[in-house]
């Protein structure tokens, strides 16, 4: 594997690279994908943020911090991670309950916990803690899982999902549900149950609708008919479709997107950054970006398949596919095939918290991969 | 560990996972293909369409604020309208250097610190291409100066907008309330879409209570702009739906006469039609000009309105809770008749004071020499306190409480203005609950003449008087008669809302009490006899002189030596004609001194005007 990574021609240099990479517990292929994607992100962010260097500097600082967290987590062995999983999960749940009771209101939703020195978003931590917990739970159970184990898993999954949906943060709740459900799916959840869940899920939609906040309902309604609210949420979708569509095959070129630069596009540095990218780099650029994502996702799945215990397999698999869920929900939303839910474009959107979580999850993937080798020796 | 390995088949698990991971990978690829198709659709198949949109995307969507509904009085006199006013707007995205621009503009028009602060805040929460108002209510001079220099400053614009105007000025300000700029707290509550173009919102009075009716529905227009963002033409327009007009029960003429006759006092007057609850005048004095608030009130004006002696912004008619004094005696008398603790012919001797058995304290009558033997009607006409001490003592506080509650004492009347106070109707249970003390018999006596704990708002007095006038068949007081939708031309007439009817065991008791009230105005010894002279019909009334501070036992009470602030409140409630009531009035003049010499003449003036308007 490492031989394919294409580091240097010189043999000496080559072996040094191998050593460095091994020492740091890194996976060169994954690392390459991440670096390429982050770079592409900085390039488009420079344009989306109206060529503001301070925006770029902030994002680089975040990337750097997130990178360090990735390095740290790559060093933690999966065995240790598995040991700590239930603890992290429990603390996360307690913090979530705290947020609901004493948390700060931001934009009409309670998400933040003020620890005095730092504001902290426990829901972000649950994006990793939930699949970790489920992977831990299944790690010593016979697989495919028995029915009673599935019931326990359902509770472990729904508890954080509902707590976060209540904040309300639909985007994060969705990601956490996906991450947890993927563990169950990869553990071998029978197709029959999945069909059953699918049907009952569809039946429960009206109930869900009943419990949704007004702004969430509005988003769904606007998604179904953007023209109905051209001053509010519908505006986002209409403008972002124009941005993408006007990009054409080759794009308008870097820094030339008129939609983005005349500020028609909302939240162009954060959730809607893909529209800026698509406007400036066109279909070709979009395909390149999608290809990079596919590369990272597939590499993650390969790492998961090669893991030696079910904890590593399940967690690694869930992390990889969750990364895809981010991508799909974000691009789907920006291109108008999914409703507007606040999910960032991974590694590209401007913003701190999700970046750290993502890099942490890559650290775990690398840990699963590299510790396996040492262990195998 | 051992038995786990027995049931955990690692190889099989690995295979299961491998298959599942493969499924996941395939699904991911398929969905990415979906995204690709979508992008292909937008960027290749529909590229031309979107490219055109983008090229033409100098097209901007702008909210158009609806015109606020107008407010009329019952005769069609306009009380609140919208007049054009000029304002200075700045569009942030077109401004190269905001600080420079603001300094420059500051030389042309007056921009104070709070204006700038509000403007900077507004920049943060608006889209950069939205024009943000910097200064409103520009004078003609300012408009001219800006217009001349306009070419120098990109991003600056003068726009004419409609803004609220109250042509009656101060009159009826406490009814109308006023609109003001939407503040941070209100911004969180209002519908963001509906208020996208709206800058003002009802703050008090009817403007606030009927905000939803008055506001209307937002419209929007797509406009074509040039590269600098200046509007070239309007492409598409969805007109806003104007707010509904309100037609009030208020009679402007009556209102201003009531204001005029009360102008020497802090006080309040409520005039209503007992047959349907319509309020004809609702006065709180002093009054102030609501137009001051529309464009943001100047600090020195505001400070003037905070004068602690007059408190003009305080709506005394609804929020002022006063001891009603003798103006509740007719209700206590009615309670006595109904409970059969007195008969309407029964007399009680009055020697100028009253003493409870086993108590030293003398409860004094306002007339030191006493009224002699008085029956119910005499006691009302002359406002004998001793009679009511005795009556209250026989009834006990709880029976007084239960009976008077039916007339709306102790709770808000439900008139259509926010924040109305409910006064206070004491009872044993109330005192134990709120003060954790038992009730004393002496407190019942002074409650019987409307002093002590008893408090009522002028609104409550007017409403209770109306219910009495209608012999129990009262209506909820209200200011709004009709809502007119100018878009459809439809109008919704508000039906009178009947209150639960008060049924007496002996309906003739109404007549006994009302007769007593007529005597107040028309008998030789009536306390308000001078206000009844020359009336073409019978008026029923009751004077009240409410103590502001307690006079010590046997101390002399000399009005002149007491500071005006400590002088008694003057009250008068009345309805007319006594046999077929058409109007009910409650008046209070704070520190007026005496109900018969101050409040009753004011009521008479209102009544005379009402008669004129009727003819």
Structure report:
The complex is a heterodimer of chains A (377) and B (615). Chain A has 377 residues and is mainly alpha-helical. Chain A contains 14 helices and 3 strands. Chain A has a 3-stranded antiparallel beta sheet, covered by helices on one side. In chain A, a hairpin with a 2-residue loop joins strand 1 and strand 2. In chain A, helix 10 crosses helix 12 (273-306). Chain B folds into 2 domains: 61-247, Penicillin-binding protein 2a (Domain 2) (Alpha-Beta Complex); 252-284 and 314-614, Beta-lactamase, CATH 3.40.710.10. In chain B, strands 2, 3, 4, 5, 10, 17 and 18 form a 7-stranded mixed beta sheet that branches. The model of chain B is unreliable at 1-6 and 551-555 (pLDDT under 50). At the A-B interface, helix 7, helix 10, helix 12 and helix 13 of A face helix 2 and helix 3 of B.
Short note summarizing the structure:
The complex is a heterodimer of chains A (377) and B (615). In chain A, 72% of the residues lie in helices and 3% in strands.
- The domain count of chain A comes to 2
Task: Output the helix-strand order of chain A.
Answer: HHHHEEEHHHHHHHHHH
What is the helix tally of chain B? Answer: 23
State the end-to-end CA separation of chain B: 105 Å
Give me the Rg of chain A, rounded: 21 Å
Largest interface: A-B, 58 and 49 residues
Question: How confident overall, as mean pLDDT of chain A?
Answer: 83
Proportion in helices of chain B:
25-40%
| Count of alpha/pi helices of chain A | 14
Structural class of chain A: mainly alpha
Which residues of chain A form runs of ≥5 with pLDDT under 50? 1-9
The radius of gyration over CA of chain B amounts to 34 Å
What's the number of extended β-strand segments of chain A? 3
CATH class of the largest domain in chain B: Alpha Beta
Uncertain runs of chain B are: 1-6, 551-555
User: Major sheet of chain B: size, sense and barrel closure?
Assistant: 7 strands, mixed
**Shape-level CATH architecture of the largest domain in chain B:** 3-Layer(aba) Sandwich
């Amino acid at each position: 594997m490492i031989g394919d990574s294409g580091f240097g021609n010189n043999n000496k240099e080559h072996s040094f690279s191998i050593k460095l990479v091994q020492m740091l517990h890194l996976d060169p292929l994954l690392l390459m994908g991440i670096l390429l994607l982050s770079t592409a992100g900085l390039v488009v962010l420079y344009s989306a943020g109206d060529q503001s260097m301070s925006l770029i500097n902030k994002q680089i600082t975040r990337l750097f911090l997130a990178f360090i967290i990735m390095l740290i987590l790559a060093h933690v062995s999966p065995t240790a991670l598995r040991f700590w999983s239930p603890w992290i999960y429990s603390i996360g749940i307690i913090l979530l309950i705290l947020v609901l009771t004493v948390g700060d209101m931001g934009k009409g939703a309670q998400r933040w916990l003020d620890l005095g020195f730092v504001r902290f978003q426990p829901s972000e931590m649950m994006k990793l803690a939930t699949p970790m917990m489920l992977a831990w739970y299944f790690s010593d159970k016979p697989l495919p899982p028995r029915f009673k184990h599935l019931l326990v898993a359902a509770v472990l999954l729904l508890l954080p999902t509902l707590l976060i949906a209540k904040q309300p943060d639909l985007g994060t709740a969705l990601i956490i549900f996906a991450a947890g459900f993927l563990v169950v799916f990869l553990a071998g959840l029978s197709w029959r149950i999945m069909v059953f869940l699918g049907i009952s899920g569809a039946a429960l939609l009206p109930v869900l609708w009943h419990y949704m906040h007004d702004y969430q309902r509005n988003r769904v309604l606007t998604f179904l008919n953007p023209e109905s609210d051209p001053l509010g949420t519908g505006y986002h979708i209409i403008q972002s479709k124009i941005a993408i569509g006007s990009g054409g095959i080759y794009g308008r070129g870097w820094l030339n997107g008129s939609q983005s630069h005349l500020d028609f596009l909302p939240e162009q540095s954060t959730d809607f950054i893909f529209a800026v990218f698509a406007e400036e780099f066109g279909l070709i650029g979009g395909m390149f970006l999608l290809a990079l994502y596919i590369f990272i996702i597939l590499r993650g799945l390969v790492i998961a398949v090669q893991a030696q215990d079910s904890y590593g397999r399940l967690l690694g698999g869930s992390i990889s596919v969750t990364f895809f869920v981010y991508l799909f929900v974000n691009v789907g939303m920006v291109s108008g095939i999914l409703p507007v839910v606040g999910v960032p474009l991974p590694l590209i959107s401007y913003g701190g918290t999700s970046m750290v979580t993502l890099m942490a999850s890559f650290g775990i993937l690398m840990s699963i991969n590299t510790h396996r080798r040492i262990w195998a020796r | 560990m051992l038995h786990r390995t027995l049931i955990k088949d690692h190889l099989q698990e690995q295979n299961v996972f491998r298959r599942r991971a493969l499924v996941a990978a395939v699904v991911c690829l398929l969905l990415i293909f979906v995204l690709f198709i979508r992008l292909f659709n937008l960027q290749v198949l529909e590229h031309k369409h979107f490219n055109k949109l983008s090229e033409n995307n100098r097209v901007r969507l702008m909210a158009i604020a609806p015109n606020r509904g107008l407010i009329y009085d019952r005769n069609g006199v306009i009380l609140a309208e919208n007049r054009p006013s000029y304002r200075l707007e700045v569009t942030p995205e077109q401004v190269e250097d905001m600080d420079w621009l603001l300094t420059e503009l500051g030389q042309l028009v007056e921009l104070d610190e709070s204006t700038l602060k509000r403007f900077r805040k507004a920049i943060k929460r608006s889209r950069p291409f939205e024009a943000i108002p910097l200064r409103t209510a520009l004078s003609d001079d300012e408009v001219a100066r800006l217009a001349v220099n306009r070419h120098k400053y990109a991003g600056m614009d003068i726009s004419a907008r409609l803004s609220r105007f109250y042509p009656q000025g101060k009159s009826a300000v406490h009814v109308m309330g006023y609109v003001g700029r939407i503040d941070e707290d209100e911004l969180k509550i209002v519908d963001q879409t509906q208020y996208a173009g709206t800058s003002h919102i009802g703050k008090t009075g009817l403007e606030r209570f009927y905000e939803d009716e008055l506001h209307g529905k937002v419209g929007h227009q797509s406009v074509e702009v040039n590269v600098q963002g200046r509007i070239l033409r309007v492409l598409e327009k969805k007109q806003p739906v104007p707010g509904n007009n309100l037609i009030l029960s208020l009679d402007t003429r009556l209102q201003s006469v009531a204001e005029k006759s009360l102008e020497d006092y802090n006080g309040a007057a409520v005039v209503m039609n007992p047959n349907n609850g319509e309020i004809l005048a609702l006065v709180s004095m002093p009054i102030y000009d609501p137009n001051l608030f529309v464009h943001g009130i100047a600090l020195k004006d505001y400070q003037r309105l905070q004068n602690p002696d007059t408190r003009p912004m305080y709506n005394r008619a609804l929020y002022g809770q006063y001891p009603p004094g003798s103006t509740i005696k007719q209700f206590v008398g009615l309670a006595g008749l109904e409970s059969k603790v007195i008969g309407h012919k029964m007399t009680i001797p009055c020697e100028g004071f009253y003493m409870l058995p086993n108590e030293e304290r003398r409860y004094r009558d306002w007339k030191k020499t006493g009224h002699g033997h008085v029956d119910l009607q005499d006691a009302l006409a002359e406002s004998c306190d001793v009679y009511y001490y005795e009556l209250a003592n026989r009834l006990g506080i709880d029976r007084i409480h239960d009976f008077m509650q039916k007339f709306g004492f102790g709770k808000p009347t439900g008139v259509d203005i926010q924040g109305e106070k409910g006064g206070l109707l004491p009872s044993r249970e109330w005192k134990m609950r709120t003060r954790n003390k038992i009730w004393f018999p002496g407190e019942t006596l002074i409650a019987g003449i409307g002093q002590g704990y008893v408090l009522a708002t002028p609104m409550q007095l007017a409403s209770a008087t109306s219910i009495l006038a209608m012999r129990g068949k009262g209506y909820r007081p209200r200011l709004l008669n009709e809502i007119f939708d100018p878009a459809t031309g439809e109008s919704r007439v508000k039906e009178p809302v009947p209150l639960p009817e008060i049924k007496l065991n002996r309906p003739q008791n109404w007549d006994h009490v009302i007769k007593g009230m007529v005597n107040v105005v028309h008998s030789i010894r009536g306390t308000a006899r001078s206000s009844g002279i020359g009336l073409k019909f019978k008026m029923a009334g009751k004077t009240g002189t409410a103590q502001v501070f307690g006079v010590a036992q046997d101390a002399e009470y000399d009005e002149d030596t007491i500071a005006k602030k400590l002088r008694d409140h003057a009250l008068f409630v009345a309805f007319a004609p006594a046999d077929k009531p058409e109007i009910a009035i409650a008046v209070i003049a704070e520190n007026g001194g005496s109900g018969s010499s101050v409040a009753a003449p004011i009521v008479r003036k209102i009544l005379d005007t009402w008669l004129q308007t009727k003819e």
